[in-house]
Structure formats: C-alpha cells, structure tokens
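Researcher: Watch the backbone:
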Amino acid sequence: TPADGQIELFGHLEAKGTEINPVSFTSTSDSASGQWGGIAIEGQANLNHVHIRNANYGLSMEGLRPDFSSILIQDSVLSDNAHYPIAITPDMLHKLEMSNVTFTGNNANRVRVETGTLVDNVTLTDQPGLDGYEIDTWDGSGFFLEVPTGITLTMEAGTTLMMTPADGLIELYGHLEAKGAETNPVSFTSTSDSAPGQWFGIAIVGTANLNHAAIRNGEHNLYILDTAGDVLIANSIISQASADGLTIAGGKTTAVCTTFISNAANAVYVDGAAPDVFVFSSSLSGNGNGINNASGTAVDAGYNWWGDATGPGGDGPGSGDTVLGDVLYDPWLTEPTCLLFDLAATQTTAADPILAGETLTYTAVITNHGVEAATAVTLTVQHSANAAFVGSDSGVCVGTTAVNCNIGAIPAGTSATFTYALQLDVAATGIVTSAVMVTAAESEPLMNNNTAAVETAVAPLPTVGFSETGYSVYEDALTATVTVTLDVAPVFTVTVDYEAVGGTAVPGSDYVLLSGTLAFSPGVTAQTIPITVLDDDLLDGHKAFVLQLSRQTKALLASENVELTILDDEMRYQQFLPLVVRP
C-alpha cells in the first residue's frame, strides 16, 4: 500500500511456492483490486506457485534488461488486478514463458503487449482463463505489431491476438505459424470482438501457415501483398470483414477446408500481376461475392461449396456466392465437405498416334489436394490387351493387364510424377487405352478425380518388300528398275537400306555396284531402285546378283532378298549350223 506502491525488480526474484502453500504478492489489506502498484520487472524472475492479486498491473515487464534470460511463471494465479495482470513490450515478449498460469477476476484477463516490433522468435501460449494478447499503446500513436524478416511468431492452440482501432494491424515480414486445433482454434480479432471493421487485419509480406485459425472483424482480415511468399490457410474461418475476407496481390496462396462467411465485399479478392491462388474444398457462403478475380491469372477454385448445390452465381451457372473474372470453379461441391484426403490423377502420353510394335511412354501426375499426407499410395494401371506393361521409372509394380504400383506417401499439397511404358503388339490396330487409378490407405470422400484414361490411335506397322519374287533384264537394255513396296500406306516415314550382294554377276563388269536407302513418306507405298547394266560383246552366258533389303525403320521386312538375272544378249542371236560328219 498505497496504490502506487510497487516492487521494482532489477535483480533476480525466486518465488518457490507449492500447490498447497503458494507465495503471495498482494496489498496490505488484501481486499480489493488496485490497492498497490504490482511488480515492475526489469531483471529476472522465476515464479513457481505464486498468487499475484489486487494490484493495478500484476506484472509489468516493459523495461527488461536484454542480458537477463527469461521471466518464467508456472502453476500460478493472477487475479483481481485493476488493469492488466501482465503488461509487456514486444521487444521482451520472447522472454516471457508461462505454464499453467490462471487468469481470473482481472479487469481484463489479457496480456497487454505494447505496440512495436518483435526482436526474436516468440511463441504465444494459451493459459487457463486468458482471453488473449492485446496490442495496445500508451500514447495512441499507432497500433501495430511488426514481425520482421527472419522472425517467427508462433501461436499455440487456443491463443487469441486482438487489436484496436480500425487501422490497427499485424505487419508480417517474417513468418506466422498458427497451430490451432479443431476445438481450440487460434483467433485474430478486434479488442471488443463484436463487429466488422474494428481493426485492419494481417498484412503479409512474408510467409504464413494458418491451421485452424479464426480471423474476423477486420477491414481486410488477411491482406497478402505482391511481394509475399507462400501462405497456407487450412481448416480456418475468415469472417465478418467490412471489406474483403482475403485480399491477394501476389505470392502463392493456398486455402483448403476453410470457411469464408459474412465478408461484406468479397470472400476472396485477387488483384496484381500474377498471383498463384488455389482455393480447394472450402466453403464460400453469405459473402458479398465469393471470388472476385481482377488479376490477369486464372484462380484455381475447383471442388468448393458456394452456398448452393447449383454452384456459384455471377459468372458461374448457379445461385451460390458469385464468381467474377477468370475463376476455375468447375467442378464444385454440392454440399460443404472438407476433403482431408483427396488424391487426383492426370496422365499424358508422349505420342499420338503410335506405331504398332513400338513403346508408348505415359506420364502420370498424382496430386494430394488434401490437408494431410496420403500414405501407402497405389497407382493401378489398367491397359488394353493389345499392349504389355514393360516398366516404370519408380515404384514396385506387379501384375499384367492390371498393374499395381507402390508410390509410397504423398505429403499434403504436393504432387508425385510416375512414368511408365507399354509395348504395343506388332499386329495392334485401332486404339490402345491405358487408365490409371490412384488410391491410398486413407478413406476419400471424393473419388471422381482419382482416375485418368488416355486413348491413343495405333498406326498399323507396314511390311516392306520387293514387288516381285525375281527380276531379269537383257544386258543391252543398259538399265533396270526394281520396285519396293509397302503393304499399307504409312503414317510415319519408313526407311530401308538396299545393296547388291553375291551372285555370278561381277560388279564393274556386268553392272554398276549399288547401295542406298529408300524413304517412304507418309502415304507413299512404292519406291524404285535404279540399276545400271553393263553390256559386253562376249558370249558369256546369263549372270545374276542378289539385291538385299536391311535395317528398315517403322516397318517389318517381308522379303530380304531378290535375284536379278542379267541375260546375255549375244545368246539371242546365236545360230547353230548343221554338223557335217565326213566318213
């Protein structure tokens, strides 16, 4: 006593109470709040089983010495204080550690944090009876809490950060980690927590992971600037903004299983040059607009509930919250559902059409749109009978027509790429079909995006060969032509090599040595081989050589060899005189 009497701690305070015999700090009469000043700490304190009551400020820590390590309060009670049970500056907030500290009967059961900038990583914890951490200022010069670059603000489940007035904001240049739980969320709101527009919101230049967070009563509850990094919003509620629930001007923003409700202008407003926005398995209902995209980049917003089973209104076909601009809203959910686990499969092929007998490569992409990891992921490949599975780039695969491949785990929000190949039969025709289906150990409520099928046209494999079983030419004709044909018109260019080999004809004496390559362009079924024959005046009989085909591409080889006979033209004019035998 009196009301301005206080304990000024510059050194070290060690309070060693017990559960049944606590250490108490109170006024002389110990009868009403505000009867003494409280404990002003500039040094270091370890308070165990302590009861601080009836002060103006129970503990004020607004001038802690940087060289002191921490203020540890555990298993204690702060009660019946006229103002705040704890008041602290943001540059010392990282030194405050609380465990099982009960707040009760105070004028405000809150920790008052002076407006300013954090200087180290801070973790805010929930305590029994603690309504939250309130950003306030003595002189009214401005209400803000800055998290600078390189600093992380972590909020444990059940914590609340509150602020007034309408221009009060959290300036996030570093990282915000909100670790809420389904029954115990992290909350960001105004001091009175009663109406929209009572504070500005959270301005994000850095990065954030918001899980089970409730952000409400701001002007722009979340404002993601054009220089921001990755922002993940999951299992959260963004509500009662006087303007936009979520404003995105840049960075990469993912909102999954999040409810947007009662935001006056837009649930989500997208602007800027090229923001990366993905809204999935969320509920957008009762807002001025659902998603208003004023940027030049499409917003991926499939599988969301828009407040009506007919889908979004505005540029959409239904009666739900409106979509404006380039919003990919189809397909949509016909009832609000959080897809904790959702796998989606897509696949492409390297060629269409494909030539019979060749290998067709497929690339399947498996994406986990859910908010939790999918484990024991299996990709099943079901292909048509005119092909055979011949391998993959990863995973263990078993089976023939239906092939099961073990992919493993896929973390939330990530994708896995799987490449496999089918070998087509040489006699394959028509269409080759391959369908993939992805499953996981976890149950999925949405299965219609788990399959992907690709049909590829099969071009028949031509057969290349000589048009005749043999050829002949008189040597005085000087030239000959041999025709090589395909049995079907090719879809791809076919090539085949030819050369003269063996036989009784001598190259350089009976014909000009020849070799080369024939090319059949698509649609061409015949090519010719020109042959130069050398004439002589000798009666030396018929001679022959062999033409051989080899090294064909995009075709089968029907006949490898054919014989060309060079007929001796002198034999055409040979006359036989009668044989006279004299006795």
Summary: The chain has a mean pLDDT of 91. The chain has no helices and 56 strands. The two ends are 173 Å apart (CA to CA). The CA atoms of residues 350 and 472 lie 47 Å apart.
